What we know:
By secondary structure, this protein is α/β, with parallel strands linked by helices. It is built from 8 helices and 12 strands. The protein has helices at 13-25, 36-46, 63-71, 87-95, 108-121, 156-167, 175-183, 192-204, and strands spanning 5-9, 29-33, 51-55, 78-82, 100-103, 130-133, 136-139, 144-147, 150-151, 173-174, 212-215, 219-222. The strands form 3 sheets. It has a 5-stranded parallel β-sheet, with helices on both faces. Helix 6 packs across helix 7 (175-183) and helix 6 packs across helix 8. The longest helix has 14 residues, at 108-121. The chain is elongated and about 55 Å long. 27% of the residues are buried.
Amino acid sequence: MEAPKILVVDDESRMRKLVRDFLEKKGFVVLEAGDGEEAMDIFYAEKDIALLILDVMMPKMDGWEVCREIRKNSKVPIIMLTARGDERDELLGFELGVDEYISKPFSPKILVARVEAILRRTGQDAGNDVLSAGGIVIDKAAHMATVDGKPMELSFKEFELLTYFLENQGIALSREKILNSVWNYDYFGDARTIDTHVKKLRSKMGDKGEYIKTVWGMGYKFEVDEK
């Protein structure tokens, strides 16, 4: 499988180079655009772009305009970058179908981790069917999960939930985001179903259940404690 192609759109050349260098170290193919119009030209010319990293404040076409245009024809994953810390911007981004929203300044390593997580979720990574963290091992192809080498008896949704947590290590996930990703957008049930599944999942993980941290008022985060 060819390496996923990422389009980085930012009017600051230093920012593009920083992001490109970190992505290329992970084996991604990186394309660059300095404004929204150039981004649209590249996007439609290339056809096989796996993900966009899109700055909000740009000349000619800003990030919102680019996102609106792309969403008319494509569901390609989009990560928005912004110097603003305004919650209204973040809400607008999610309304427009943005997959992740990262405020500047940010850690390039975190950005790359989120790129990898999104591509795993959308099945576009060229990576491994086996995930592991802190004694938890998931074989997605075999649909098996073990803790310290012992198989866990998980329901289908428990397996999907644990996989989603491992794919998004260290990222705080809202209940709504978990519902949308694990139960899909057409699920209209109560978000408390997540709490029920997390409780069962923790009990089946034994002492490793503490890796699933509660983020009060928001949701959960999977994080392996460093000993």
